[in-house]
Design brief:
heterodimer, A: mainly alpha, 74% helix, B: 244 residues, alpha/beta, Rossmann fold, six-stranded mixed β-sheet, four-stranded antiparallel β-sheet, 10 helices, 39% helix, globular
């Protein structure tokens, strides 16, 4: 009996792996493995500053992929994704700071809240046919509600901000997410890698096909029997839950939360820049976009400091210029172009 | 024999314009049924009412004995009605094959199975060699065939075709006629088509309904329809009838 179950599970995973790897050129797999290996050993070779930069890169790779599920796969533009990260961060942080509840357990509590919040926004929009730009405005409105609401919520210290107890830790405590940047680095690396695999699995599943159909032409999708309401709801909820984990990471990495910051629209915008630069709807685009944007912005900062310039806002200007260049030269993003150039596109049978 | 599709006094108005005015007709299972009429006669609106893209203001529509009037489009598709659009709307950024896979997923949740079914249909509609092309890059006739393949992939009992011959060359339209005939004969698929290409209508249809200003002005066998004075006056024109 047990052997049979084990065989079935093994068979399931073999088939899952096979379907995940199907159509991926061998070279792309090798490059992906090399990239992952490099990221795995990176902490041994880089200084603390570069490690922090890599953490930020992976953080945006993570949130970008989460947002991409909604916009890139299902075609629903959210400009208020900060709300999900903020909810995840606040729930786990307040449970930890007040009751000592470990963030992983706190995250279990945050999942239904984030999903419920996504479902509420989705239901209001999809049930009452709020689409396109109006949907985007609705997502902004909810994030703003949350920002103002949390600003007046004494339980989470309102606008004074919520702080996590910080102490010098003798060793890394993964269960309570207390420890060195290296530990946080591996947490976000694992999370980003996991979401990458999840996105690939979703995109190659029947759900992924239905999302793409809705993105391309919702009326035509419905004409082939796709219940677009259900699929759009699923996209919002999955995206919301994944994004909420980014908030957990953020809260425990930075140890402080201010409503004015975490729910700010600029946070939502930051999350979507990576996928836009990298390529909306592609699997690797959000990751590439995060590397390009954060990497280049930090390089620019370093260069400016080295040259003795003090230019506040240089990063924002740089973001703006990057966006302009990509929109003009590569409207589909950098990754589709790079994939064509390097022959890393998906094989077609 | 009971009708597969049955419309009774179905009406739809857009503000002051009555697009479809108390239309009633039955389509028997296995039939090839054509709807003709001048531009603006309400043919596409009628299709939208049947397929759930619009809601009738009055009257009843039933399919396989059950009322379907006012159901959403996806629910109607799941009951077994497939459709194409007059202005083609394939999923532009997806490949030809993926377009059809989306349709096939309705009854095969497994993507690999859906792909097998999609390829089978692509072969039948002469699109197999183009399966890896992005749908937006296809020529119009190919996009029309793609829409037919995608609709067929949902395994409909009834297929609604909105001007699939328009813009096709005579040889292409003959090919389409042959494909539809084969489908009808081999799988008993019932087809309702809106068509302006009388050559195709005469070759295919066993029954023709003529709409003008939202009203049914004639219904019957194609040979009788082309001699009906009301039809000739409002739609066909005398010269065309002589040519046929």
């Amino acid at each position: 009996m047990a052997a049979k179950t084990a065989a079935r599970v093994a068979d399931y995973f073999t088939r899952l792996t096979a379907s995940l790897l199907a159509d991926v050129p061998g070279r792309a797999l090798i490059l992906l493995a090399v990239l992952f290996a490099l990221l795995l050993v990176a902490p041994w070779f880089i200084n603390d500053y570069l490690l922090t930069v890599l953490i930020v890169v992976l953080y945006f790779a993570f949130t970008g992929q989460a947002w991409n599920i909604m916009m890139g796969f299902a075609g629903q533009l959210s400009l208020g994704h900060a709300i999900y990260a903020g909810l995840g961060g606040y729930i786990t942080a307040v449970l930890f700071a007040r009751f000592g509840i470990a963030p992983w357990l706190g995250f279990v509590a945050a999942v239904p809240v984030a999903a419920g919040c996504g479902a509420t926004i989705g239901f209001l929009a999809f049930r009452f046919r709020v689409a396109g730009v109006y949907f985007a405005i609705l997502t902004i409105a909810f994030a703003e509600f949350a920002r103002i609401g949390f600003d007046h919520l004494d339980f989470v210290n309102a606008s004074a901000g919520l702080f996590l107890p910080v102490a010098q830790y003798a060793h890394n405590d993964l269960w309570h997410l207390r420890g060195s940047p290296t530990m946080f680095y591996y947490v976000i690396l694992a999370a980003a890698a996991l979401v990458f695999v999840l996105c690939r699995a979703l995109l190659k599943s029947s759900v992924g096909y239905c999302w793409l159909a809705i993105r391309e032409d919702e009326q035509a999708a419905r004409a082939v029997g796709i219940d677009s309401f259900r699929y759009k709801m699923a996209a919002v909820m999955i995206s919301a839950v994944i994004t909420s984990f980014a908030g957990v990471f953020y809260a425990f990495f930075y140890n402080n939360l201010f409503p004015e910051q975490v729910f700010n629209i600029s946070r939502s915008i930051e999350m979507i820049l990576g996928p836009i630069i990298g390529g909306i709807g592609t699997l690797f685009g959000p990751i590439l976009g995060a590397f390009v944007l954060t990497g280049l912005a930090e390089a620019l900062n370093t260069a400016l400091v080295a040259l003795g310039f003090d230019l506040p806002g240089a990063k924002q200007v740089f973001y703006g210029v990057c966006l302009l260049l990509v929109v003009v030269a590569l409207p589909d993003g950098v990754w589709p172009w790079l994939a064509r150039l390097t022959g890393l596109e998906e094989r077609r049978r | 024999m009971t009708a597969l599709l049955s419309l009774h006094n179905v009406s739809k108005r857009f503000r002051g314009l009555v697009a479809v005015d108390a239309v009633s007709f039955d389509v028997a299972a296995g039939e090839l049924f054509a709807i003709i009429g001048p531009n603006g006669a309400g043919k596409t609106t009628l299709f939208n009412l049947i397929a759930g893209a619009a809601t009738p203001d009055a009257g009843s529509i039933s399919f396989a004995g059950e009322p379907i009037g006012g159901l959403p489009a996806d629910a109607i598709c799941r009951r077994g009605i497939g459709r194409t659009f007059q202005i083609v709307r394939p999923f532009p950024a997806l490949t030809v094959e993926d377009n059809v896979i989306v349709g096939a997923l309705l009854h095969n949740r497994d993507v690999a199975k859906a792909r097998t079914r999609a390829r089978d249909l692509l072969r039948r509609l002469d699109l197999f060699d183009q399966r890896n092309r992005i749908a937006a890059t296809l020529t119009l006739p190919d996009r029309k065939r793609l829409e037919v393949a995608r609709a067929l992939a949902t395994e409909p009992k009834l297929l609604l075709l909105d001007e699939v011959m328009a813009g096709l060359r005579p040889t292409e339209s003959d090919r389409m006629v042959a494909i539809l005939r084969t489908l009808n004969r081999d799988s008993g698929l019932t087809i309702v088509l809106i068509e302006h290409v009388m050559r195709a209508v005469m070759a295919l249809a066993s029954n023709v309904l003529v709409l003008d200003h939202g009203i049914v002005i004639a219904q019957g066998k194609p040979e009788a329809i082309v001699r009906d004075p009301a039809v000739v006056r409002s739609y066909l024109g005398a010269e065309l009838v002589e040519r046929i």
